[in-house]
Amino acid sequence: MSSSAGASSMDTxxxxxxxxxxxxxxxxxxxRESRDVNPHDWDNKQSFWKSxxxxxxKHENKGVIDGERVAGMFKRKGRIPVAVNRVLVEMARxxxxxxxxxxxxSVTAGWISWGVNQVVYKPLGWAYGAIFKRNVQSLQGPxxxxxxxxxxxxATLECHHQSVNSDALDRLVDYTTLRESCxxxxxxxxxxxLALLYLRKTKKIVVTDAPPEKQVIKFIGKNQxxxxxxxxxxxxxxxxxxxxxxxxxxxxxxxxxxxRLQEETRQCLRKGLKSSAKSTLRRKKLAEKSIExxxxxxxxxxxxxxxxxxAETDQMxxxxxxxxxxxxxxx
Length: 331
Description:
Layout: H1 21-28, H2 39-60, E1 64-66, H3 84-93, E2 97-99, H4 100-109, H5 111-121, H6 127-131, E3 142-145, H7 146-163, E4 172-174, H8 175-181, H9 189-201, E5 205-207, E6 216-219, H10 232-270, H11 274-310, H12 314-330
Antiparallel strand pairs: 1-3, 2-3, 4-6, 5-6
Helix pairs in contact: 2-3, 4-5, 7-9, 10-11, 10-12, 11-12
């Protein structure tokens, strides 16, 4: 695409035929008042712009569009495609895009009842009439492109499954860890949150009732048809894993501290500051003893996690967790 063809960046894919001035002039023009006048013309524009919108969303890994700004995404040689607004209205009428607020409110409404209301009943009250009006107003506010959101949700599910090393140990994941591991799947935080909501509505995950940064998420297993509720045992296992991660970080920091104190001791000795050197050396030895204690605790926790992984019953897992609580308290 030549630089004069549009305002989009060079790495953004544009629809086929974007450089064809004659074809673009036709596609940028408004729809006829009625499809009955020229069904081929109507359907051709609908197909082209719907495909262009989907392509852009998938390229950017974003499942949310602003109804009032979509047309501006395809600005070309100073022109805005007036046909896009009508395409969006038709997509809303067919249930291919839904208002973000309606989608989010469906958390308590139930997936089936919400879907029937949004896709079948509610659009007929406004979109169907609007599609045939001579002056179609642009849709306002954020809308979710369901096909794109579903693909991102499926990719998130697959990303998690690929990170699972043990069914016994990796049933739960905290939001922050999941977000980082799926960063390449979805860079947009809003879309990622909505993808989790989509998985929740389709019974692929359950989420604890907490702010996003404190949420704990349980995914459906590969051989399951529906995710089960989070148990206290699973919470205990996650706590054990987080304790292990914390211990490793503390040990790494203590190792850095001992290296720094060792260098400070040498500098004090070179300067003849024996008293300061002894004080620094004592701090280094205390740090080394702390490392030894934490490494011993880490080994114990790892043994417990190995036992949990090999446990044949939930009761055996709970007994192991009960034994681990004393170790966790030491950290």
